[in-house]
Amino acid sequence: MKSESVPSGRSALLALQRATHATLQLIAAELVDLDLTASETNALANLADGRGRTVSQLGAAAGTRPTTLTGVLDRLERRGYITRGTRAGDRRSVLIELTESGQAAAALIRQTLADLENRALGGLPAESIAGFHAVLDALIEEGS
């Protein structure tokens, strides 16, 4: 059931922005040796499962427009983290896949994210985490 209005006082979106910036700073500090931008980290984290994706699929998973993602992919390819090839049966579609060094970086990123999430949210009740995910899903849906 949706509430009729957002409670006054503390803005959830401003708190989310602060939390996002703080989280990005923590991730950057913990992954400083990789020397990646937040967008590059996001792309690699979304490829960490080892499944190749098209630019559109990766953009949807990362919450980034394909046109914005192109520059990120250019940089990752130059650094040897990804390759771009064609999909079997569809030469027009570009498939993004991790290289061996990309797999190592992506695994480190995923582990760092999991560790940070466990530290930050580990003491919260499951209902709170579920509510948090419901809020995130509603915001994603609004932006879609």
From TrEMBL:
The keyword Transcription regulation applies. PANTHER family: MARR FAMILY REGULATORY PROTEIN, TRANSCRIPTIONAL REGULATOR, MARR FAMILY. SUPFAM superfamilies: Winged helix' DNA-binding domain. Residues 9-141 form the HTH marR-type domain. Transmembrane segments: none annotated. This is HTH marR-type domain-containing protein. Keywords: DNA-binding, Transcription, Transcription regulation. InterPro entries: HTH_MarR-typ (IPR000835), MarR/SlyA-like (IPR039422), Tscrpt_reg_MarR-type_CS (IPR023187), WH-like_DNA-bd_sf (IPR036388), WH_DNA-bd_sf (IPR036390).
